[in-house]
Amino acid sequence: MNARFKANNVEDAMRAFWDMEEKGCSPSVVSYNMVVRGLCRVGSVGDAIEMMKAMIEKGMVPLFYTYDAY
Asked: Which DSSP string corresponds to 14-70?
């Protein structure tokens, strides 16, 4: 996912993230951090905030790295 965000391929990065869940692999804090950071990197801060909210709703605790993405 990280490489896809770096290549500004947001659609593929997000597809990879959602495919994880569909295939029964729950995203971890690390996965969410990659998505939050990637979305911020491409200027989609609103989407990054929504992703962080989803992360918290699933009981994950954001790390310093998560907040450092903004």
From this structure: HHHHHHHHHTT----HHHHHHHHHHHHHTT-HHHHHHHHHHHHHTTPPPPHHHHHT-
For residues 47 and 39, the answer to whether their CB atoms sit within 8 Å is yes
Q: Give the separation between CA 50 and CA 7, rounded to whole angstroms.
A: 22
- CB of 52 closer than 8 Å to CB of 66: yes
Q: pLDDT tens across 19-31, in order?
A: 988 898 988 888 8
pTM reported for the whole predicted model:
0.80
DSSP 7: T
* CA–CA gap between residue 67 and residue 70 (Å, rounded): 6
